[in-house]
Design goal:
8-oxo-GDP phosphatase activity, alpha/beta, EC 3.6.1.55, 8-oxo-dGDP phosphatase activity, mutator protein, 10 helices, 8-oxo-7,8-dihydrodeoxyguanosine triphosphate pyrophosphatase activity
Length: 335
């Protein structure tokens, strides 16, 4: 069922405008703890705190001079009474709040010891990963759930220059590398033949267990029973969600206004860029990672970074709040 979207007032369009109202930066660390059944621990924010009643990944503020690892060890001991071994970074989320700018550094906890309990009176719950989305969370914690559950690479298909059969074979090779999210597009391809080719491609994606979206064509998305990614122009012209509430909807975004529109429309994620210069957009200056991180602060949507990026950039993308990278050439196998 489609639903109308409330208008969004967004006078600030530049990265610099986001941080003007709140310049205080708060560094926060959090940990992903799992039990023997693979469930993940959430803690409920207590009364008297900002965002009381919401669920979050446990952790707290990093003190001046502390490393993130040391801060997380201290916080989890103070809050939960356990000793932990801190692993690698899952994601670092910059998020703007009315009174502060927060940076949430989330680490995997590889091992923990002791009797876990809420020493500050906070409720605790072990949640199966597939149910994390059902818990109300602060904005900064929502991208963490996506980082745990969704693909870190988003393949955008190229034009079938060598013909439909070669294009389908290329898609299959990409899926064989482990690609789990695909945007089907074929600029310049015969529009009469595209629905049939897209249907074949969607079948390959489903067989590989990959989520599939089509580019810009809501009718085709509904016909194939797949997701839809809107162009920025479509996003700006859309006031009603073009898919049912359970349909996967994404959008291509370039500024704060578009990101907020995508969130208001009920998009599950957005693609933001371009980060670096690309051959397909000669002369266009990228926003860079610093610009990406500042735009990231404005919304809680999972965001893929796009523009001159490949798999080697995923760790950098995660440090700036991205879900991962979206790409054409870098994710499309050659040969």
């Amino acid at each position: 069922m489609t639903r109308p979207v409330e208008p969004v007032a967004t006078p600030d369009r530049s990265p610099a405008a986001i941080g003007q109202a709140a310049t205080r930066v708060v560094d926060v660390v959090a940990g992903v703890l799992r039990d023997a059944r693979g469930r993940i621990l959430l803690a409920r924010r207590t009364e008297g705190r900002d965002l009381a009643g919401l669920w979050e990944f446990p952790g707290g503020k990093r003190e001046p001079g502390e490393t993130p690892e040391a801060a997380l060890v201290r916080e989890l001991h103070e809050e939960l009474g356990i000793e932990v071994d801190v692993g690698g970074r899952l994601i670092e989320v910059p998020q703007a709040y009315p009174d502060k700018r927060l940076r949430l550094d989330v680490r995997e906890i590889t091992r923990w010891r002791g009797t876990l309990r809420g020493l500050e009176g906070q409720a605790l719950v072990w949640v199966p990963p597939h149910k994390l989305e059902s818990y109300a969370m602060p904005p900064a914690d929502r991208p963490v759930v996506a980082a745990l559950r969704q693909a870190d690479r988003y393949l955008v298909t190229p034009e079938p220059d060598a013909g439909a059969d070669a294009w389908l074979a290329g898609l299959q090779r990409a899926l064989d590398t482990g690609i789990q999210r695909v945007l089907l597009r074929a600029p310049g391809f015969d529009p009469e033949r595209w629905p049939g080719l897209a249907g074949q491609a969607a079948g390959l994606c489903r067989a590989a267990g990959a989520e599939v979206l089509v580019h810009a064509d809501a009718g085709l998305a509904r016909e194939l029973g797949v997701g839809l990614q809107l162009t920025a122009a479509q996003l700006r012209a859309t006031s009603v969600r073009p898919l049912d509430d359970d349909g996967v909807l994404a959008a291509s975004c370039h500024d704060v206004e578009e990101l907020r529109m995508a969130q208001a429309l009920g998009c599950q994620f957005a693609v933001l860029g371009t980060v670096a210069a690309t051959p397909s957009h000669p002369g266009r200056v990228g926003i860079g990672w610093a610009g990406f991180a500042v735009l990231r602060e404005a919304v809680s949507l999972p965001l893929y970074a796009i523009g001159g990026l490949g798999p080697d950039d995923i760790a950098t993308a995660r440090r700036h709040g991205a879900q991962g990278i979206a790409a054409i050439r870098a994710l499309w196998p050659s040969g």
